[in-house]
Amino acid sequence: MRADRLVSILLLLQVHGQMTAKSLSKRLEVSERTIHRDMEALSTAGVPVVAKRGAGGGWRLLEGYRTNLTGLKESELRALLVSPSEQLLSDLGLTRIAEDARNKLLVALPAVDRDGVKEVRQRIHIDTSTWRQSKEKMIAFESLQAAIWKEKKIWIRYDRADGQTVDRMIEPLGLVAKGSVWYLVAAAEGDIRNYRVSRIRSAELTEERFNRPDSFDLAEYWKMSTQAFLERLPNFEVRVKGHPSILPRLKFTPRFLRILEIGSPAPDGWIPITLSFDTEQEAAETILGFGDRMTVLEPVSLQHRVIAMAKALVKRYEEPGTHPPD
């Protein structure tokens, strides 16, 4: 409804200070033209919304203007009280603080609202951990948080993915949890980069401050960064046919296998499946793991590799000394 959207615009401008029509349209899932019409409606109603033109511009409220929109819908209260990830709160040292904040919110609610939402955490629980995953050791996590809040540069020693260890001065902009894994987003050498926190071997906070970019939006940056990462991933597409019994297991295969399409069963019951891997070697090793319940259709080069690896495996077990004693 338009009235709800106008209220949302007011709240967003009060929280963020200034936002472009583009960012507002994305948040509210409407066109930029609709946002401009909404701004005209707010102005007509006496709300002092002003537009700053040019680079770095956007919509804002006149300084000092505040609304008194304190009423919360039951659905909004539920959203606030849904239990966040206990693991991530623990990493940030906010477990007790978050619990206290939720309790204060419940106490402040009228009894009629309190009764409607107090059982939210008994209905919905969020667990961001994965099965059998060991917790990553994060040596420098507290130092990184301090540098982010104080906007101070920090020296880090970092283990890169290629095995090299580098020392680098960075300007930390924010922390992002991807599942249960933490990443540091920081400016370094004129570029914004992502660092896996568990690979940071040491972090030394300096007294040198840096100017955080006014236009930097952590959530928007991360969305664009992850999309660019996915687009750069290698893609080796494979067509196979599989026995129906493998389908449940196929959905719990290693992280580098992606199911693109599962077709309808053939007359013999076998199912055509299109898969994607990073490399041909990963494809061959995974397909061999399904034994005689998966057959490669395309590409032919993968057929040859699987056959060669299967022959090598049989030969290895035929060698003397590979069999247990009778």
UniProtKB/TrEMBL annotation:
Residues 2-57 form the HTH deoR-type domain. The keyword Transport does not apply. SUPFAM superfamilies: Winged helix' DNA-binding domain (SSF46785). InterPro entries: CBASS_pafABC_assoc_protein (IPR051534), DeoR_HTH (IPR001034), HTH_11 (IPR013196), PafC-like (IPR028349), Tscrpt_reg_HTH_DeoR_CS (IPR018356), WCX_dom (IPR057727), WH-like_DNA-bd_sf (IPR036388), WH_DNA-bd_sf (IPR036390). Keywords: DNA-binding, Transcription, Transcription regulation. Coiled coil: none annotated. This is Transcriptional regulator. The lineage of its organism: Bacteria, Bacillati, Bacillota, Bacilli, Bacillales.
